[in-house]
């Protein structure tokens, strides 16, 4: 008996170890899935400069450090960054430029790729082991990591530095939407400078099979009622002419979320004045969760009737964003809603399946009260954190200011008129400037910069696209560059995106998950997804929505609403 | 240790001690060869176990293992009080149990059937074909199954409607989802499981069959009285080992196939931990569940080991 026991013990330990390893490895499977769903706030570009010292400082220009100083930094290096033979992250055309121009030596503290969370893991480890932090961390990705970094208290109130050293161009770009600061606010301090990205980049338009519309003699839908007629025709009148009833109206996929980045259905809720799965601002300046509003109930009723009439794919609940869009490109669905860049991917594939296929962008239709609503896109895609112990923070601003002034919207005759570096993103061939990948080899030196893309002015991209769509001549270097790379449907879509910009319902909550969110988010999300899909599939009556709302509120929803509003008060300073 | 200290008296004991040291002297290279593996196990299996303490902390990465606040059993309390946890554990048990049972029975029967086939070429080809799916990942199979099982126009549903039934929404119906999980898992893995049984079959002494034939036993009788008993030990080994997995219902598979429509019946512990622990950044909680699962698995393995010994008089180790 005793011997028996002794033999059992190692067995048990071993078994325990094995199963533990299995769990940890299962958890290693990671986490970007949700990121896309939370498209953030976007607002009309406002020209109101931030109060106070808009023109203070900003004279960090033409600084050159002699002897050169070193900025140590960290950023994830994505697989999209390509180096020439003999160059690497610490030694390339851009670091040489920074050294020559400013006397700044850019030095990665260590290098880790962005894939498989290698960067996050390494950074978390060095945080845990109390290693010295670099002067600057530039990061986009897991928001939890950003909060951990901010909570560690090792980074300085970057907002103050920004007010002091940033140039006007950069400040204007930032002020297009001041809410970009909100995620990085801590006790009224702006820890972390948002990295700006092009605005409206993820805002949806409605893509329709133009050839089907013409064949069936349909007009562009302006309201949900019009749309219903179009969908009915696409479903029942055999638009692809193969004699089979194998087509349907609208491709949506809500395996992840109903308000999402492609194959979106959020705009249907928008037509009823709300936006699910995000925090909307109400008329009295409070924030409310869109999925539990009256508008959502109406939208769900609409979706239910569409599903029962066969306008939606039977498998909408199983499709993710990409899979649903495949139904459009496969010629099964006639409508899909998604960003203006969809012609670049995946819409063009529809022509592979049917060379006569045509598609065109249309404005989102209005609801019964004439309302149109869509989700927005954040003007920011990452953050720069500055170490409290950094010796020369002004050096970073000098560097970034210059990129904003010279590179974000380059001037004719400016240093970056043709691109960032000759021989990389542009070459001279036969006396002409060439920027296409075939001549340059596809090098992108802006990806060598600290902030991933050099410098971007949010409103610029869409404004230029829209301008080009109306047939105006491309004059500035930026306009010329965009014109070369954009197809006509894409330009038209961009124009529509801008025309409908007042319909944006921005995600107002961009802070860290609140205390109750951390414990209750999953159960609430599960409840919401379950109720929504049961209603859409007609397995539950529309009125079960009311029960869901009650349960949502009592299971933590009310508490979260309160916390979210407290957060909003704290970051917006109580202004409406 | 004691043995060497005590004066060696009888010649027998002397001889034994001498042989022992001689063994060591002669076999030390073999023992040394074991060392790297041992070190690896210690570094990668035992040392990380220290991380279990996270389960009793409110773990904050920048504070590390030593700096995070201790919360005792709070995480466990949170786990047990979680409103959905009962359903999630039940789902896991049901799915895992049926996968285990089917994963044992199907290869067992299939191996016996395959063994009866005389045409070598056919046997080999079948064997290869059925174990091929084992090498496909669930990410790929997830996409394939979505198409094959589609209610309108999917291969399987075409067959179903051809027999006059209504099409079935395999991946979107709470009543069918678990069934789909189990069958697709068995389909993917039974070929691989068959190999083990075939190996055991090859080890049966042919003399037994010859003797049975002389005694006038039919093929069926031979199978029941010779083949099946011969396969029993390996079946018990596999069964015992798999019981430890009763709380693993297959993260890869469920994660790639589940969706809002079948959350109720399809959500298992691992997917739940993934959402809460990874997506919502509650590392302590994820570790808590991991530890919980390990403890349950350890108890189950120990019990099944005992039962295998008691009832089948068989020892795995």
UniProtKB/TrEMBL annotation, chain B:
Subcellular location per the Swiss-Prot or TrEMBL entry: Cell membrane
Stated name of the protein: Protein lplB
Similarity annotation: Belongs to the binding-protein-dependent transport system permease family.
Pfam families reported for this sequence: BPD_transp_1
Transmembrane segments: 34-56, 88-117, 129-150, 190-209, 230-251, 283-305
Entry keyword set: Cell membrane, Membrane, Transmembrane, Transmembrane helix, Transport
Domain of life: Bacteria
Membrane topology: Multi-pass membrane protein
Domain ABC transmembrane type-1: 89-301
First and last residue of the signal peptide: none
PROSITE patterns recorded: ABC_TM1
Main location: membrane
InterPro entries with a match to the protein in the record: MetI-like, MetI-like_sf, UgpAE/MalFG_permease
């Amino acid at each position: 008996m005793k011997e028996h026991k002794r033999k059992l013990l190692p067995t048990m330990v071993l078994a325990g170890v094995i199963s533990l390893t299995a769990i940890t490895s299962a958890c290693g499977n990671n986490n970007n899935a949700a990121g896309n769903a939370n498209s953030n706030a976007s607002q009309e570009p406002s020209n109101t400069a931030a109060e106070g010292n808009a023109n203070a400082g900003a004279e960090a220009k033409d600084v050159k450090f002699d002897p050169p100083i070193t900025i140590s930094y960290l950023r994830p290096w994505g697989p999209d960054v390509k180096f020439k033979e003999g160059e690497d992250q610490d030694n390339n055309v851009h670091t040489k430029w920074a050294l020559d121009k400013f006397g700044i030596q850019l030095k990665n503290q260590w290098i880790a790729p962005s894939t498989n969370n290698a960067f996050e893991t390494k950074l978390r480890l060095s945080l845990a082991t109390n290693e010295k932090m670099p002067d600057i961390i530039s990061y986009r990705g897991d928001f939890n990591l950003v909060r951990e970094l901010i909570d560690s208290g090792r980074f300085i109130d970057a907002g103050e530095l920004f007010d002091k050293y940033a140039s006007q161009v950069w400040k204007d770009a930032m002020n297009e939407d001041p809410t970009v600061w909100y995620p990085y606010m801590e006790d009224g301090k702006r820890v972390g400078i948002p990295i700006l990205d092009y605005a409206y980049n993820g805002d949806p338009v409605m893509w329709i099979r133009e050839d089907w519309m013409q064949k069936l003699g349909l007009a562009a839908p302006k309201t949900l009622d019009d749309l219903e007629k179009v969908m009915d025709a696409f479903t029942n009148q055999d638009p692809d002419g193969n004699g089979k009833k194998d087509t349907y109206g609208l491709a949506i996929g809500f395996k992840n979320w109903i308000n999402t980045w492609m194959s979106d259905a959020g705009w249907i809720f928008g037509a009823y004045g709300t936006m699910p799965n995000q925090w909307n601002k109400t008329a009295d300046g409070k924030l409310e969760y869109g999925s539990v509003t009256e508008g959502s109930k109406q939208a769900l009723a609409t979706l239910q009737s569409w599903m029962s009439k066969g306008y939606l794919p039977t498998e909408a609940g199983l499709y993710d964003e990409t899979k649903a869009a495949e139904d459009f490109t496969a010629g099964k669905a006639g409508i899909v809603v998604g960003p203006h860049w969809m012609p670049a991917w995946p819409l063009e594939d529809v022509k592979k399946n049917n060379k006569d296929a045509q598609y065109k962008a249309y404005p989102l239709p209005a609801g019964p009260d004439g309302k149109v609503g869509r989700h927005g896109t954040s003007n920011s895609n990452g953050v720069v954190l500055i170490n409290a112990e950094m010796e020369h923070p002004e050096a970073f601003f000098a560097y970034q200011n210059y990129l904003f002034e010279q590179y974000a919207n380059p001037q004719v005759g400016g240093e970056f008129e043709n691109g960032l570096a000759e021989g990389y993103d542009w070459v001279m061939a036969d006396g002409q400037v060439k920027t296409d990948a075939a001549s340059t080899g596809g090098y992108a030196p802006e990806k060598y910069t600290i902030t991933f893309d050099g410098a971007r002015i949010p409103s610029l991209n869409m404004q230029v696209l829209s301008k080009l769509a109306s047939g105006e001549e491309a004059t500035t270097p930026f306009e010329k560059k965009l014109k070369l790379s954009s197809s006509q449907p894409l330009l038209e879509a961009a124009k529509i995106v801008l025309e409908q910009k007042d319909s944006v319902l921005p995600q107002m909550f961009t802070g860290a998950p609140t205390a109750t969110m951390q414990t209750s988010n999953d159960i609430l999300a599960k409840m919401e997804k379950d109720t929504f899909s049961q209603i859409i599939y007609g397995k539950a009556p529309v009125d079960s929505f009311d029960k869901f709302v009650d349960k949502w509120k009592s299971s933590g929803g009310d508490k979260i609403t309160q916390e979210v509003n407290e957060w909003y008060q704290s970051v917006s300073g109580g202004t409406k | 240790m004691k043995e060497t200290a005590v004066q060696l008296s009888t010649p027998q004991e002397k001889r034994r001690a001498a042989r022992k040291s001689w063994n060591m002297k002669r076999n030390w290279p073999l023992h040394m060869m074991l060392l790297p593996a041992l070190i690896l196990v210690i570094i990668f299996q035992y040392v990380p176990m220290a991380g279990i303490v996270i389960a009793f902390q409110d773990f904050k990465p920048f504070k590390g293992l030593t700096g995070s606040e201790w919360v005792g059993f709070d995480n466990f309390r949170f786990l047990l009080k979680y409103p959905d946890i009962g359903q999630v554990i039940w789902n896991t048990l049901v799915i895992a149990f049926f996968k285990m049972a089917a994963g044992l029975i199907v290869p067992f029967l299939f191996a016996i059937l395959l063994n009866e086939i005389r045409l070598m070429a056919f046997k080999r080809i079948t064997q290869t074909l059925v174990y091929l799916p084992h090498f496909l990942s669930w990410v790929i199979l997830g996409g394939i199954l979505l198409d094959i099982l589609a209610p309108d126009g999917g291969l399987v549903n075409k067959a179903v409607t051809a027999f006059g039934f209504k099409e079935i929404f395999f991946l979107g119906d709470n009543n069918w989802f678990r069934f789909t999980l189990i069958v697709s898992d068995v389909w993917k893995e039974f070929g691989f499981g068959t190999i083990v049984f075939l190996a055991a079959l090859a080890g049966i002494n042919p003399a037994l069959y010859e003797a049975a034939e002389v005694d006038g036993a039919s093929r069926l009788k031979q199978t029941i009285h010779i083949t099946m008993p011969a396969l029993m030990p390996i079946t018990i080994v596999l069964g015992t080992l798999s019981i430890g997995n009763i709380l693993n219902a297959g993260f890869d598979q469920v994660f790639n196939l589940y969706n809002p429509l079948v959350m109720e019946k399809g959500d298992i512990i691992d997917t739940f931990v993934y959402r809460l622990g990874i997506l919502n950044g509650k590392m302590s909680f994820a570790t808590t569940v991991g530890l919980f699962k390990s403890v349950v698995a350890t108890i189950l393995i120990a019990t099944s080991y005992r039962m295998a010994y008691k009832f089948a008089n068989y020892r795995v180790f």
